[in-house]
Amino acid sequence: MTNREIAGWFRKLADIMELHGENPFKIRSYQQAYVTLRKWADPLEDLSLEQLGAISGIGKAISEKIRELAETGELATYRKYADQTPEGVIDLLAIPGVGPKKVRTLWKDLGVESVGELLYACHENRLIELSGFGVKTQTDLKNKLEFYMLTRGQSRYPEAFHLASTVVAKLRSADPGSRIEMTGELRRRCQVITEIALLWCPSTSVDLTSDGSWRFVDGGAPHWIWQENGGPRVTVWVATPESWGRRLWETTGSPEYTAAMAPVQVADAPEESEFMAKAGLPDHIPEWRESVDWARAASGRRRDLIREEDIRGVIHAHSTWSDGIHSLEEMAVAAIKGGYEYLVITDHSQSAFYASGLKPDRIIAQREEIRELNLRLAPFRIFHGIESDILYSGELDYEQDVLEGFDLIIASIHSQLKMNEEKAMERLLRAIEHPRTRILGHPTGRLLLSRIGYPVDHRKLIEACATHQVVLELNANPQRLDLDYTWIPYAMDCGVKIAINPDAHSSGGIGDIQYGVQVARKAGLGIGNCLNTMPLKEFEKWLFI
After folding, report:
1. Which of 442, 413, 439 has its CA nearest to residue 426?
2. SS3 255
3. Up-side HSE of residue 76: CA atoms within 13 Å toward CB?
């Protein structure tokens, strides 16, 4: 299990215990475990009880539960509460912004036991008289429910990739000589995955039905379906060595792309490139095969298409000075080990009290630590930045003299997110116009599959960044991936650079750069259009223009 999956179990446990009105102290300990473990760098499932117990805030009971998760894949304590809870009520706990206390009220006082029942109750205005609710809360909840229903059955790329990797391992175990590759949306590096698909070429006759998770479908194109305990489904298409190239091409592109590009005469080939050459198909990389128009537009930018190894520096990272899990030095050492030349540390600003944002006196102390680390870690360089909150007025989060002291400022919205487009654009444009803003962070505030984000006029936003020479962030955290890749071509056309930033809150979070690069390639982002492909000296020159 990944660290995020393990951490997620403790959040689920805290929520379901709060739903049942259990001990607040235990609930808080599980909530804190979620915060700590999701950012932990080393694989938790590989740690001993003693090593787990050495993590701050992780005592004996939680350590034992981590080992239980690693060994069994679930928690008996969670199951005890889940057995007392209608399945639909558990679904309600997964809706962002609702919370266990509200779910308990809806369940116990209104008799709601499913998402569908709650949505119906909203339409019937039955929540208005409930304690803790009202017209505004009901409207907000209705919108969240509709979004939840729309996105149900989808997953973000890392979670889908992890599940697909699990099935790949099962197939390799059953047939070590077989050929397997991820295909479909995973191979296209989609931000959100609706179908997890693999292509498999067995080396021998293999019957998987002895494992109840497998089902064979013989109609049309033969394939296996893998599904465990009612969870997400994985489709495994079957190919022969001779048909591999054709089947890989056919299963990679979107239905729209594949139907539009399908050749009249199709000949098998063992490799995809050979099949494409035989069929006279353009050499569109998998990431571009969403639509013919997208592929043709993106292919015009092929010359210097960005790769992960082109990223030279880590921009946008948090440390223990605010809400990061690792110290400044640990973050720097991780960046050095990753082969990067520089790190821009951007802890939260003072308004982010929930994240221990930096007051002016702590800014000075942090600057001194950076100075000392730069002496020890040279030629690697740490730059002193800040992720400054864009206040409701559009102002940045410090007085001008404090802002002047930073090497780089990322301006981001973190609070009062419920805005119409007019207000959102007013805040964003005012921040862009500020002479100290160099990068606009996660421009829409979206969280994939959790929060739509505030509405913005993308063209106006990008054009303002061009006018004021502000870089747009492609936040590489797989929960954000914001700016959306579909707007990157317009940014390039306007001469706006893109910064592929991990928004790392732990040393392991630096690795999220890979997800940013994936969607940047999908957009056709060139090396020269990306800020942090600059070598140290060039970046330093840009920084202090």
Report:
1. 413
2. helix
3. 7
Whether 75 has a pLDDT exceeding 80, the answer reads yes
Distance CA 515, CA 504 (A): 12
Going 27 to 28 to 29 to 30, the CA torsion angle's sign is positive
The amino acid at 271: E
Placement of tokens 């299963």 in the chain: 251
Q: CA quadruple 512, 517, 387, 452: dihedral positive or negative?
A: negative
Both tokens of 26, joined, read: 């235990």
d(CA 460, CA 473): 16
Distance CA 95, CA 115 (A): 9
Q: How far apart are CA 71 and CA 53, in angstroms?
A: 17
Tokens of 425: 């654009």
Helix (H) or strand (E) holding 343: strand 342-348
My answer on whether omega of the bond before 360 falls inside 30° of 0, hence cis, is no
Nearby residues of 524 by Cβ (< 8 Å), 6 or more positions away? 288, 297, 298, 299, 300, 301, 302, 305, 488, 489, 492
User: Which one, of 447, 505, 355, lies nearest residue 37 by Cα?
Assistant: 505
Q: Closest by alpha carbon to 138, among 125, 151, 149?
A: 125
Chain position carrying tokens 């989609």: 190
Find the helix or strand (DSSP H, E) in which 439 lies.
Answer: strand 439-440
DSSP string, 175-224: -TT-EEEEEHHHHTT-SEES-EEEEEE-SS----TTSTTEEEE-SSS-EE
What structural domains and CATH numbers belong to the chain?
Answer: 3-151 (1.10.150.110), 155-299 (3.30.460.10), 308-543 (3.20.20.140)
In sequence order, the β-bridge partners of residue 225 are 215, 235
Across the strands, what pairs with 181?
199
The answer on pLDDT for 124 being more than 90 is: no
**Structure tokens belonging to residue 451:** 């929060």
Strand 342-348 with 313-317, pairing:
parallel
**pLDDT per residue as tens digits for the range 482-521:** 999 999 999 999 999 999 999 998 899 999 999 999 999 9
Q: For 239-253, what is each residue's pLDDT tens digit?
A: 999 999 999 999 999
